[in-house]
Design a protein that fits this description.
Helix content is 43%, strand content 20%. With 269 residues, the chain is an alpha/beta fold. It has one domain: Alpha-Beta Barrel (TIM Barrel). One of its GO terms (cellular component) is cytoplasm.
Length: 269
């Protein structure tokens, strides 16, 4: 079987988690505290065997100031030993370069691929297509790249970034996000057939059955999936075991988190 990666998602708003895990009774303090300390949440997903963590900058997507979120994602990366892939919307290539230089393993580029293609090519050469990837958030197959660019089709965007040297893509449809209704497999097959880029899909996954369906597309280059809401609501069988263990170990976990937070503190980005 072709290896397939499941990546938990953390959404950040002003440096705080937008979601909180629904734990077993007795873990209320553990999980509520994590909303204020995303580093702890990243460490928890790692302890639960995450091989990568997906972080989304909700502030930037909404056009708001995201200084706190930018600082937080660097702290998170320094606190875990697996890659963090960071989806943010920045106005210039230099903002992505600073994140990479600060240690964030992977950044997902969108708008600036259109507004500064030469700068993106340079960034790819400097940091490699493994660390510089591209993000598509589509609606009815259209991608909104902001007032300076407007709408392009997802196919136009994917072919464009492939020509720049991109070799990995995160793809989601707005209607999938938080819906727990699964993903449109025909859409994924269509975008997978455009290039030979590796593809991570995101949004909509609600159950192991949804995962198995996506995994069938692995021969097309779909090698991973980002899961948010379903992971926080414990919809997968293994999670019940994790939450029961965490309920018993809550004081010990907090002690570990406090120690890790002290060791991983950093200066401003």
């Amino acid at each position: 079987m072709i290896p397939f990666l499941v990546i938990p998602a953390i959404d950040l708003v002003q440096g705080r988690c937008a979601r909180c895990i629904l734990g077993q009774p007795g873990t209320e303090t553990l999980y509520s505290d994590m909303s204020d300390h995303p580093v702890e949440l990243a460490q928890l997903w790692r302890r639960e065997n995450a091989k990568a963590i997906h972080v989304t900058d909700i502030d930037a997507i909404k056009g708001l100031d995201d200084d706190l979120t930018m600082q937080q994602v660097v702290r998170m990366q320094r606190a875990v030993d697996v890659p963090i892939q960071f989806v943010t919307v920045q106005k210039d290539v230099e903002s992505y370069r600073r994140l990479l230089a600060a240690g964030v393993y992977r950044v997902a580029i969108n708008r600036v691929a259109w507004t500064d293609p030469d700068g993106v090519r340079e960034l790819l050469d400097e940091y490699s297509p493994s660390r510089v990837i591209f993000g598509v958030r589509a609606h009815n197959s259209d991608v909104d790249l902001g007032p300076d660019v407007g709408m392009v089709t997802d196919e136009e965007f994917i072919r464009h970034v492939y020509e720049l040297g991109g070799r990995r893509l995160i793809y989601t449809e707005c209607d999938w996000e938080g819906s727990l209704t699964g993903q449109n497999l025909d859409t994924i097959r269509r975008i997978a057939g455009l290039t030979n880029m590796r593809i991570t899909t995101a949004g909509g996954i609600a159950s192991p059955r949804d995962l198995w369906a996506i995994q069938e597309l692995a021969p097309l280059g779909v090698d991973s999936v980002v899961i948010g809401r379903a992971m926080y609501e414990n919809t997968f069988p293994c999670q019940r075991i994790w939450r029961e263990i965490e309920a018993e170990l809550e004081p010990e976990l907090h002690a570990r988190f406090d120690d890790d937070m002290e060791q991983s503190s950093i200066s401003r980005l």
